[in-house]
Amino acid sequence: MSGSGSRTAILLLDFQNEFVKKGGKLHNDVADTMEKTGVLENVPKLVDFARKTDAMIIYSPVVMKESGTLTSSVTRRQSTTFHTTEYSKQYGLFTENTWNCEIIHEVEPRNDDIILRDRSDFSAFEGTKLISELRDNNITHFFIMGFLTDACVYQTSMAAAKLLPEMSTYVIADGCAAKSLDKHEAALENIANKSVNVVSASEAESILAECAASSKQSFLDDSDEWLMIEKIFSAGGVGRNESMDVDILRSLIESLHSDSSILSTLTDSLEASGEKEISRAQMHKILFQRKHRSGFSENFPLLILMSYLPFLYSVSTRIPFIFIALEITQGRGRELWEVGVVLGTYQVSRALGNLIVVMFGGKDPFKRLQILLSCIALFGWSFLALFGRPSETSPFSFTPYLSETDGGGTGSIMPLFALFCVGLGETIVILQRSLMMETAKESPSGIMDESLVAQRFSYQYAFVSFGATCAFIVGGWLYTTIGYYSVCDFGMIIQALHLLGALVYLFLARNGKKSLKGDELDGNDLIRSVIYRFQAASVISKYSQDVANGTEHAMSSESQGLSDAAIKAKSDRVLNHSLGEMYRHFFLQKSDDVVCMEELLNSIESTQATGVNASLTSKRPTAMAIGKHKLSKLVLFLVKSKGQGRLTEREFVSFWGPRIYLSIYESSQEAKSVNVIWPYMRAVVATQAIAALCIGIFLSTALLSYTQRFPERCDAATVGLLLGIGEGAGVLVIFAKSYLSGRKYKESTNNLLLGILKAIVARPLNVPFVLFVASLCSMLFSVDNFIVAVTFQMIYSAVNDLAVSLMNELIGTSIPSEKFKYYQGIGQWLI
Q1: Is the pTM of this model over 0.70?
Q2: How far apart are CA 134 and CA 369, in angstroms?
Q3: Cβ–Cβ < 8 Å for 780, 700
Q4: Are strands 197-199 and 114-115 parallel, antiparallel or unpaired?
Q5: Which range among 315-319, 361-365, 515-519, 766-770 has the greatest average pLDDT?
Q6: For residue 643, what pLDDT is reported?
Q7: Distance CA 282, CA 609 (A)
Q8: How would you list the strands of the sheet with 8-13, edge to edge?
Q9: Contact 122, 152 (CB under 8 A)
Q10: CB atoms within 10 A of CB 354
Q11: What local confidence, expressed as pLDDT, does residue 517 receive?
Q12: CA-to-CA distance for 489 and 399, rounded, in angstroms?
């Protein structure tokens, strides 16, 4: 339950087997009224609807000791308004820990629901924290239903109206029951006469829906998406609670002269709807509502990126750790320092692979580099599998053979440096970036759902961990039972399958839904580009009219805040891109700059003539002191910084950029850039790089550590099994984390220890906490005891996978998508 985001609450009184189900001691008392009012049909349906609107669900059951009886102020006062209940004289009702006391399964509580178990009266407020729950969560609409209408429901509704008069209280007429229909209706009449609303379940649904929409709008008013929508409406001169005329919006879009897919999405939706006006909510739905994938053809590319390719990538890049050290020391009779040289070279190549992705990957590194790097890695495995291969074993035969050192000699390690090519297949950053781009396709605007990206990153890395599990177990078994070349054959097969999967994905991506077109921007940047263009029309129009009417500040090259805005505007690539596109459309078509400027002003004026109101046009008289041609010449003179030659794109952008920036943000100090990389995120990236280095060291030495310290117990197959089990535990931990993070739990205000624990496991503190546990386990792994070493190695593997998954999510959802490749590549380069 997200407190501040929810403004409604539903209270269920005594929905327990004792009343509702056959076999309950009080069921016969209310069965007839329940059937007539349809309680069992209406209440579960209303509760389900309330959950969808994020309403707070509160249960107030009666819980009695076996020897206890019901007592109430109603019976003590002997109310003349209602019949006193005989329940105060009965024993054995609602006995705790029995079927009778249980809440009925149709409205079974969930983890985030609130259950008030300390009720001491017929009123749900007596002896409970109900009033504090309602106040703390800013509840404005409170719905009550349950048993009995003339007892608990009446008392609770009266208490709510008295204790929280500012809150609207409702009693659901067809969600309650009494001992007879007459008593039920009489109670409802009395409730309605005392300023409490009596409504039906269907009316309650409508109220809940309205409250949810109001609450969501209030919450989203401060979000980036709604701020963008507001800027578009502001550019169209539309008031806060008004809709925009579709013709005005269409003319604004046409005036931008852009082939942006955002604009085509808007225009196509407007034409399909046939509406004459568009509200902010409708525009938000068009631009931002996620389009769910349907069918195999749409889900298959996502499946390739989330499972198939990460799994095979992990198998291919993890296999060397489970056999190379033993192959060098035992298979080829060489020294330990040579193990370091070979594996060090391999790690350097993996770092180089990440560096290549960062430097040359571009916007779509999968299209640019995935196939190339996969082919290089396949060449590396093929060389290892074929060079110097004994005649008695053919490729893919998987039959045992005699090694070079079986006769007591030594073998060369030079062929093993082909692992350098294998290491260049370090393409996890490419797969992560592609997953982000694939997720962005589900939004018409190309803006990613951060929670969805985080979830998919978790699943993707879970398959990376699963691939490591298979690499260690299968690779260790192959090396122990068959030999070196069988492992290389296995690696070659895996890398070939990986290359095939990459080719299939490229084919599907090319023939599926296209990425955003017409711009080198995506997501939020593309929407901001549209906003800047709308604002540019407003600024250029106002400036030209000020010039025409001789306004002094228009003639001046400086104005308050313009210098600071110029610094910020220069670094805003989206603004520069938007103005650059405008310049290229109007000024590259003809050689006469004055004519081009005149066309630009005419285009803006024709747009305004369609009906855009005052915020887009100057409030000054439209009559100008000079003609349009002279005005264009004067504006052009002011824009050109060099004063001679043709107007350059740089001059156009540098002149209008600060003015547009200032007009949007009013003060450059208020500007909020989505491209900020906060210092703590740089620390996270650095931490990820160090953690990757530690992981690489651990994987490189784990095999030797086991076989050197426990030679009688460990060979490659055994170590592979142990490491594989640890990685398998990591898979389970990641899935468990994803499952638990999607569930909501009732807040506890009393348990300090639980509160501290929640803070530790929440972002961003969960990263250092998990890394601390991992470092502790890595130290304990060095204890010279087999059971202790195995235990902490497995814990380390599981916790390490969780740490990497958490850092991937943190970086992927906290850094602008266009910078993800760069920072994630840096974070991974030491792996």
Answers
A1: no
A2: 56
A3: no
A4: unpaired
A5: 315-319
A6: 62
A7: 25
A8: 114-115, 56-60, 8-13, 141-147, 168-177, 197-199
A9: yes
A10: 27
A11: 41
A12: 11
Residue 115 bridge partners (DSSP): 59
Tens of pLDDT, residue by residue over 668-678, are 344 444 344 44
The single-letter code of the amino acid at 640 is K
| Alpha-carbon 159 to chain mean position | 42
Helix/strand/coil (H/E/C) assignment for every residue in 9-77: EEEEECCEHHHHCCCCCCHHHHHHHHHHHCHHHHHHHHHHHHHHCCCEEEEECCCECCCCCCCCHHHHH
Strands of 479-553, DSSP E? none
State yes or no: pLDDT of 102 exceeds 50. yes
Tokens of 804: 């990497």
**167 within 8 A of 142, measured Cβ to Cβ:** yes
Residue type, 369: L
Q: In whole angstroms, what separates CA 511 from the centre of its chain?
A: 27
What pairs with residue 169 in β-bridges?
Answer: 142
The structure tokens 């008289």 sit at 621
* Secondary structure (3-state) at 105: helix
CA-CA distances (angstroms) from residue 237 to 249, 266, 614, 703? Answer: 10, 18, 6, 69
Whether the per-residue pLDDT at 83 is higher than 90: the answer is no
CA 507 – CA 514 distance, rounded (Å): 12
Helix (H, G, I), strand (E, B) or coil at 333: coil
Length of the chain measured in residues: 831
Contacts of 378 (CB under 8 A, 6+ apart): 492, 495, 496, 499
DSSP class per residue in 182-204: HHHHHHHHHHHTTT-EEE-HHHH
pLDDT digits (tens, 9 = 90+) for 396-411: 888 876 655 444 445 7
Q: Does the structure show a pLDDT above 70 at 614?
A: no
Q: Tell me the pLDDT band of 745, cut-offs 50, 70 and 90.
A: very low
CA atoms within 13 A on the CB side of 100: 17
**DSSP class of 369:** I
Burial class (CB in 10 A: 0-12, 13-18, 19+), 789: buried
The model's confidence at residue 825, banded by pLDDT at 50, 70 and 90, is low
Tens digits of residue pLDDT in 430-477: 998 898 888 877 776 666 677 788 888 888 989 999 999 999 999 999
Contact 168, 161 (CB under 8 A): no
Tokens 């205000």 belong to which residue?
749
Q: Rounded distance, CA 471 to CA 477, Å?
A: 10
Q: What is the mean pLDDT of the chain?
A: 77
pLDDT score, position 828: 61
Convert the pLDDT of each residue in 640-656 to its tens digit.
Answer: 866 667 888 888 888 88
